[in-house]
Design goal:
The protein has eight helices and nine strands. The protein has 225 residues and is α/β, with parallel strands linked by helices. A seven-stranded mixed sheet has the order 3-2-1-4-5-9-8, with helices on both faces. Strands 6-7 form a two-stranded antiparallel ribbon. It has a single domain, classed as Vaccinia Virus protein VP39 (Rossmann fold). The protein is globular. Helix 1 runs parallel beside helix 4.
Amino acid sequence: MTDHDARIRQSWQANADAWTRAVREQRIESRRLVTDAAILAALAEGPARRVLDIGCGEGWLCRALAEKGSECVGVDASAPLIEAAQMAGGGRYEVMDYAGLIEAGDSLGQFDALVCNFALLDEYIAPLLGVLRERLNPGGRLLIQTVHPWAACGDAPYVDGWRLEDFAAFGGEFSAPMPWFFRTLESWLALLAASGWRLRQLREPRHPDTGKPCSLLLEVQALGG
């Protein structure tokens, strides 16, 4: 585990309760107005009978999908977040990080859709992306929603690299900042292609008032799938 990996994990351990409240009380404007609906709409456009939510957090997406009749498995490296998800129900939840997901093999079964909703925070995710192809049913999809590179870049150079999220916009309850790895759009597309995925659709969900993109939503399928 790298130092950045350890700090990401420590941040989610420390901030689990604050994050759970922020999500369940709909304090995060971009999620409330744009990105939650965007991922649900994308999932509704194709098969989603069985879904794997990677980095599920406190489980909001699994609960929303369960209400629509989907069977959802949620995994997250944060034990406190998984505990919160289990208490709220809506699916099967397991504490599992990237390495654990790679090692899990077919123990979780096969899925119609895999979702990484603001969950791919690390630099070295190619091994995970490669393994995920094996978890899909024929015709299945991987949906990745992440920060929009142009919107998230700010005044920093538009190059790949580590950034720090201090959660200042989410209120004062968050006690530990979180490192995360910024990727340009070019880097995202190159990484997916190198990991055996082909782009099916690219979406840029926009804020209803400003018209500016709130996220980047990539729908990909395994090459040959």
